[in-house]
Design goal:
Elements (H helix, E strand, L loop, with lengths): L1 H15 L3 H4 L5 E2 L10 H13 L10 H20 L9 E5 L2 H13 L8 E4 L9 H12 L5 E4 L11 H7 L4 E7 L12 H7 L5 E4 L11 H4 L3 E5 L10 E5 L18 H17 L1 H20 L4 E3 L18 E6 L4 H10 L2 E2 L1 E3 L12 E5 L6 H13 L2
Parallel strand pairs: 1-11, 3-4, 3-5, 5-6, 6-7
Antiparallel strand pairs: 2-8, 7-8, 9-10, 10-13, 12-13
The structure holds pyridoxal-5'-phosphate (PLP).
The site of pyridoxal-5'-phosphate (PLP) has 14 residues, from helix 5.
Length: about 400
């Protein structure tokens, strides 16, 4: 792991220098990228350029600025498809949203609800982000009001690794299974949930919706490899502006995804920022971003595991990268034996560390059950992690 950091140091340094807010605050360490990511200069420039040269509404008007905006939105759709490694872009669609929560709700209300009949079953995660549970439960309620009874089953987890459990999933899947929702990387445990194994269990015909809020921008992504039907993500966690997100829909199993209702004016500035952010991430190299942040998270996990006062949540192994099932990415959540997590969050900020400390919107987690979450991105450094470990050691 240390080798990976050493090897990538000269690649990482100029990238860090491209984040104005990071450069302007050398005494602070931003360790909350899982909540929202900081933006590189290229994204700020793209926003400025768009507003200064062609700001207009999209899909309306026939003058050059309107045409340029419409074209930029269409280009952004193609950009998302390319970023996701879409093997058949002519058969897929991209719908822009305000974030992953709206994206998941849109799939639930505008796609899934119309396709379920009495007795059908859906399999969804019960201990991931609330945004990936609430919409499916709402569908059940919506249909119940119309006299249609569906069953919501839990996507089972594997003890110890925090991963999904394919064997237990096989027992939950039957002839009435119509849909599976899953999460790519867990927002508290930081585990890559090995979702590529779900397709093998559910067979070729069951649509799978993937919440990729914590993976887009953090690792190379391939819808072809994952073989899912929907990919929902937050643009703002992938370095685009706040209020951005997208739903990619394969459109192979069942009719195309066409969210209903009058869409209104799209967030053209946000969409322009998303295209620029994906350009930036591709140019930086998501494989290297992954290697860098996995190495930093591994260092933090290892360091914490040696401190008796702390409990690391989820998969403890930092050797996760070469293991079949245990794969920590860029998120490390932990608790102190005596200091409540919220207090620890304040204490850490007094030392310059910006972390998140609460229940992290995890479905089913009581607020009292909170933890401190450190989430890393490409601008973070080994020095920040060492300094954090030093502070945590002193707080034992
Ligand atoms: N899904 C996961 C795994 C998340 O981590 C988050 C945000 O923290 C969301 C969904 C919701 O994303 P958004 O804030 O873009 O609605």
């Amino acid at each position: 792991m240390a080798d990976a950091l050493e090897e990538l140091r000269s690649w990482q340094r100029p990238l860090r220098a491209q984040f104005p807010i990071i450069v302007a605050n050398p005494e602070l360490a931003y360790l909350d990228s899982a909540a929202t990511a900081q933006k590189p200069q290229a994204v700020l420039d793209a926003v400025q350029h768009y507003l200064a040269t062609s700001n207009a509404n999209a899909g309306r008007g026939s003058y050059p600025w309107a045409n340029a905006t419409t074209a930029a939105v269409e280009r952004a759709r193609d950009r998302v498809k390319r970023f996701l490694g879409d093997p058949a872009p002519d058969h897929s669609s991209v719908h822009f949203t305000s974030g992953a929560s709206e994206g998941l709700r849109t799939v639930a209300r505008d796609w899934l609800a119309d396709r379920l009949a009495d007795g059908d079953e859906v399999v969804v995660p019960f201990a991931d982000h609330e945004a990936n549970l609430a919409p499916w439960l709402e569908v059940r309620e919506l249909l119940a009001r119309q006299g249609v009874k569906i069953r919501v089953r839990e996507l089972p987890y594997q003890d110890g690794s925090g991963d999904y459990d394919p064997a237990a999933l096989a027992a939950s899947v039957g002839p009435r299974t119509r849909f599976v929702a899953a999460t790519h990387v867990h927002h508290v445990y930081g585990v890559d949930m090995n979702v590529h194994r779900i397709r093998r269990v559910v067979g070729p015909d069951v649509p799978i919706c993937l919440d990729a809020a914590q993976s887009i921008g953090h690792l190379p992504f391939s819808v072809a490899e994952l073989d899912v039907d929907f990919v929902v993500f937050s643009g703002h966690k992938a370095m685009a502006l706040p209020g951005t997100g997208a739903v990619w829909a394969r459109g192979r199993r069942g009719p195309r995804f066409r969210p209903g209702g009058w869409a209104g004016t799209p967030n053209t500035v946000g969409i322009a920022s998303l295209a620029a952010a994906l350009d930036w991430l591709d140019a930086a190299g998501t494989d290297r971003i992954e290697a860098w942040t996995v190495a930093l998270a591994a260092r933090l996990t290892d360091g914490l595991s040696r401190l008796d006062a702390y409990e690391v949540l989820g998969c403890r192994s930092s050797l996760a990268a070469d293991s079949e099932v245990q794969r920590r990415r860029s998120i490390v959540a932990f608790r102190h034996r005596d200091i409540p997590s919220r207090d620890l969050g304040f204490i850490l900020y007094s030392h310059g560390f910006m972390v998140r400390s609460d229940g992290h919107c995890q479905a089913g987690a009581a607020e009292s059950d909170g933890s401190v979450r450190v989430s890393l991105h490409v601008h973070n450094t080994a020095e920040e992690v060492e300094k954090l470990l030093g502070t945590l050691t002193n707080l034992q």
